[in-house]
Amino acid sequence: MRYIPALTAAWLVGLAGSAGAAELRPPPGASSCAGCHAQGAAMGALDGRPEAEIAAALAEYRSGARPASVMGRIAKGFSESESQAIAAYLASQGNP
């Protein structure tokens, strides 16, 4: 069997790319945050904020402990585990 560096390199890049894509895929519901919480948006970016802070805020919105007009309704649509996954994803996305 002949060694073909270019094909081997392409295969390795493909493997790395497919593994990275699975890790970077946002959990269900995370895309609903982007409209109001993108960098430069009026409500401020969430990317890079501490996971615990984001998860706690979602829990407070869900329970009604933190008053809000829109976030209470949005947060009630997520379970505790979905909220944790969203918080972890947003926290991993960089600095606010």
Task: Tell me what you see in this structure.
- By secondary structure, the chain is an all-alpha fold.
- The protein has a domain of 65 residues: Cytochrome Bc1 Complex, Chain D, domain 2.
- Helices cover 59% and strands 0% of the residues.
- It has five helices and no strands.
Question: Can you summarize this structure?
Answer:
Helix content is 59%, strand content 0%. It is built from 5 helices and no strands. The chain is globular.
Q: What is the CATH class designation of the domain at 27-91?
A: Mainly Alpha
Q: Quick one: CATH superfamily of the domain at 27-91?
A: Cytochrome c-like domain
- Overall structural class, as computed from helix and strand content, comes to mainly alpha
Straight-line distance between termini: 51 Å
Radius of gyration: 18 Å
User: Please, what is the average pLDDT?
Assistant: 79
Q: Helical proportion?
A: 55-70%
